[in-house]
Fold each of these.
Amino acid sequence: MTEVTPEPIVDAEKPANRESMTRSIAVIGVGHFLGIELVKRLEEDERYHRVLAIDLYRPDIPFEKTEFCEVDLTMPAADSDLARLFSEADVDTVVHAAFLSRPTHATEWAHELEDIGTMHVLNACAEVRPAQLVLTSSTMVYGASPHNPNYLDESQPLRGHADSRFINDKVGAERQTMRFARENADIDVGVLRFAPILGPTIDNLFTRFFSRPIAPVMMGHDPLLQFVHESDAARALKRAIDIGARGSFNIVGKGVLPYTTVLALMGRLPVTMPHVVARSLSRLLWVTQVFDSPPSFLDFLRYLCVADGARAKRELGFTARYSIQRTVLDFLGVATDDGAPDPDRIYG
């Protein structure tokens, strides 16, 4: 995988704050947590008078002002369908969140959805010219590498992973979006790279991995891990849309912990093994579809991939409310508001 160094997309004059404007917004990808949670918050916000929820299937949540629109991003006519919807609803903001939250064996379909699907979204935006486009991404695009600094800021190259279509398709989507931003300076383009999201309701690669009773530990490795609570993630996305974010932002939680400490906090049984053994076993379990985390994921249990959230704090005004300890306990369903010890006090 060729490294992609992010090019600046914040050179233009900072847009006017949109918090007081009446808005019409399209949310693409409401079959997963971020899209659904965003729509819920938009439903409650009077500033957004019209909301389009775009996906293949209608989410099972009540709508009042939201209109569901069925569009398949893998189809050749998806860009014209999107452009028509954007134009008819006078959409000023487009949120592209149609990305998989966990790897799939259907890699060609996933590529069509994320890489080609992003092309369709950008083509529609180029035609209709909304004021703002926001893309959701992941800090995993930086890649897990022994050469990573302690904290990765937004200027770091997007290394991706040589063996992970799940990650590399997201790098490809970002590459397209960077090019679009350079060529369409009149549109405010924002990219939010979320640290692994944990919480009591979300279903993704990390929640499934940490739901197992045992977990592999790579011999000689114990990297620091970083999460963001599902509530903080949804709040950050809404905040970025409200103020008209422009540029790339890492969205991270409070604090980091060693991998083995996370396992201890979760009550999981660590199984130490050499990487070569773990990779062979993981490949077998992945191919036979016993486990849903591919062998490439093991590198994130070997090497550092921790992002710096300073820019989001400085320019978006976003600071996570949940510490990593509290995020983990909330994922486990451990109550902290009924007299039980507060993990923020226990762990600092």
Note: Confidence is low (pLDDT under 50) at residues 7-16, 338-348.
Amino acid sequence: MGVKEDVYYEGGPHIGELIVNILLGFTVICLPLTVGAIVRALWLRFRITSRRITVIGGWLGRDRSDIIYSEIAKVVTVPRGLGLWGDMVLTLKDGSRLEMRGVPNYREAYDYITERLSDRARKASGAIGVKPKAKASA
């Protein structure tokens, strides 16, 4: 048989994203953001396991992306909702990007993901606006 795959997180975006965007929807200008949040709440699903990251989304949840950790070159995070949830962008070695919006407990998810990355990818990763740590010179 194969190697056991442990599930770290399986579910949709943080409920706070939907609530905030519905409240913003009362201003006509933010209606597109509200519609986007509703669509994400209905059809976007994340599955983060010990072997891969799966994002299911698109119209009626018909698009699926499976990424194994060895394909990831960099992970960048952006906090949202007072830090309760955040966005992640996974940059792959071929230059393509996979965006994960509204990830619940994104800091813990980021830590879980970066533990499984190569040293090079781990050093390139981080939060937006935070410079990578400088190497100590001998």
Note: Residues 31-43 form the longest helix (13 residues).
Amino acid sequence: MISVNDLRRGHVIKLDGDLYTVMEQQHHKPGKGGAIVRVKMRSVKKGNVIDRTYNAGVQVEDVRLEKRPMQYLYREGDSVVFMDTENYDQEHIPVGAIGDALRFMKEEDIVNIAMYEGEPVTIEPPAAVVLKVTYAEPGLRGDTATNVRKPVKVETGAEVKVPLFVNEGDFIKINTESGEYIERVKM
């Protein structure tokens, strides 16, 4: 058991017999009355998002996960195929369980897959990835003083907002958690 006060992004808990991944947690202390905790969670199996409000200090069932490094092979219909890097077993994981992490993953990338009772539950991609910009409107020289952003497409097909000086063919570092541009990288 774990207190809702201790929940953080990425925790997996068991609620009503289903597994949920914590997406957001807010601790709120109103002017009068006790503190409350608002938790936004995604169902591991179904992919739907729910919001729950708890009184501070309430206990929920914590789930211990085994993490294994696996290689992203390819997408097949509504699932993604990963290969265990130790014994070469392949796992089919539903796209709904992966979430937004798939937008920034290339084939052959290594990620940590959390397993619960032998079943894949969630994916932990690296904190940041470097991807090549495949489409960008031309930038104007000297446009670095403003905080204006333009959308570009990267090699995985994801769209990212970047500063105006980023051009097609550049490599950029992207935060996989928020999907935000971090910096341009020289390759």
Note: Helices lie at 95-98.
